[in-house]
Amino acid sequence: MIDERKKQVLHAIVKDYVTTAEPVGSRTIAKKYDLGVSSATIRNEMSDLEEMGLIEQPHTSAGRIPSDKGYRFYVDYLMEKEELDADEINNINMFFTKRLSELDELVQETCRMLSHVTKYTALVLVPKRSEGKLEKIQMISVSPHQVLVLIVTDTGFINHRVIDLRQAISPRRLQEINFFLQEKLYGLSLEQVNRTLLGEISIHIARQEQLLDLALELMEQALMDRGDERVFTGGALNMLNQPEFRDVEKVKTLLGMLEEEEIVKKLLHKQLREGTEIFIGGEIPFEGINKCSVITGTYKVNGRVVGSIGILGPTRMTYPKAVSVVETVTDQLSLVLAKMFR
Amino acid sequence: MIDERKKQVLHAIVKDYVTTAEPVGSRTIAKKYDLGVSSATIRNEMSDLEEMGLIEQPHTSAGRIPSDKGYRFYVDYLMEKEELDADEINNINMFFTKRLSELDELVQETCRMLSHVTKYTALVLVPKRSEGKLEKIQMISVSPHQVLVLIVTDTGFINHRVIDLRQAISPRRLQEINFFLQEKLYGLSLEQVNRTLLGEISIHIARQEQLLDLALELMEQALMDRGDERVFTGGALNMLNQPEFRDVEKVKTLLGMLEEEEIVKKLLHKQLREGTEIFIGGEIPFEGINKCSVITGTYKVNGRVVGSIGILGPTRMTYPKAVSVVETVTDQLSLVLAKMFR
DNA sequence: TGTTAGCACTCTACCCTGTTGAGTGCTAAT
DNA sequence: ATTAGCACTCAACAGGGTAGAGTGCTAACA
Asked: What is the mean pLDDT of residues A143-164?
């Protein structure tokens, strides 16, 4: 059905198209990749490959380009692993020696680095906060009517939020509440805190203190604030160097989508099971992200998958290298995080 | 030299070009804006205006477009104030009723709103931290070897940063240091803290405690972290709707510049003296930001200018409306901030 | 039977050309 | 000083012709 030679031809087409961005013809293949047969033979093979839906013609009398299905076949069966060269490995390792002590920062920088190394767009999903266990919760008086709530989890997440109180609160009383909260909530996941204990605590405090509003606000605002997880993107403009984005309309829709947190999250979120995955062209469930592929990988803390990174490029991207980069970076990231919260 | 009629002609040219984005000819002016003279007369006037450098021809046999100098004249002498319509005012006011209790968030949201209302790109500079006076400094133990430093200023700036310690520190001792720092530093500007007291404190603590490294790290990392002020941009993609950015290369350079914090800062920073200012075309000191104008305005806390906002659009932008928006928003912003830190 | 050379055919990209229409600048008349 | 009229310029567009890349088919070949 799909014999060795067809594979070679498909492989050649993908390789060539990835580097040139031009439809590739039978003659080109015969000359550049010597398969030991003439262009005419290759023409026949290409005709078959087209029938199978693995390649397609932009128009008659143009060469062929791989279809999504073609890339899929390539990625699954043809592609050979490509080790990064010394320079790149060096770059990445150098980066990870830089000590960044806060999660957000680390992630953001990783994003930059990723896009820089790959020349594609990088996406990084920061761990769900609610996955982490509460390490510390503390309220600190800022002004008589304002309290700063500080939350730290064991996955390194730190968040603060100012809450306006309707009535003043004494520092002393604040201390007590702090103590109480810390006792009650330590070691619970934020989700648990949010779901199960919300009622109990607010009642408890309210009974003692008529501070129901404070308690409610605390919970609602501090824990449920802007989304439960965050994403960063880097190098979105790299896409503009790709010939498939020479049209401003396409640029607009693509960049527009990348600005929507929700969409980026879904791009990365699809799987939070361990490992690297590749989504090609139409496999990405968004109209508007056309002719693009995403490679995702996950990183871990304490053996738990806590987030994922992704590389977004044209379907015509250099898969082997991109996969290698994703894998090296996720590994390194996991290592660094392990050290960070040992 | 430049008589009333010339002004009228220039005014007409600017108005027309702003809405159509097409070079405007003498006939168009004669028909649409009845100045009571024929196109031939207008042609003569235009010839004069061109000689004066206020308008220019993209090529012979095209209409004229305003030059930077022409826009400058328009902005300085011709433009009439334009009140916002009820809808827009409503929009803005509605926005400011939303209660956002944290500065960063408020500013970021303002940015979104601004770009949405104007359909241009919005830039917002968040107050210099070092302008604010220290309201609170506190170190909170996160783990035996990690301390979270929290800084709050009277301008509403809140920052935290985790510091890794080389030796463990007891909660009790931390308390003492907190007390000491709070005493010593309260009410000083962060700059002062940074510059003058750095030495004194580190020596003081070190003598008592051999915690020189802690003190140093504290100061260096917590106070000097990533830049002293931050900027947000919003609606950068709006620029893609402007016909002058139909070319991907231009898009790339412009968006590239907007991604550089330093550049955006300078765009806004130029003046932190009170009031609205307009920078047209070449008056913006960046190659690469071509055919663009910026309108900036400042907002205040306690009568002190603490930050500025800007609108970036094509030189061919609707100045009167943009100015009105900037002015309404800075006013409202100052009001909200006043409430926030009364 | 698989492979190849050869050839007719197709289609895009490019260049050249002519035409149209908007707009100017000049001149002479009012 | 203003205007009508006219010659002139130039970008934008459309049509036509050509070159080149590439295909598909057929017939010959090993």
From this structure: 74
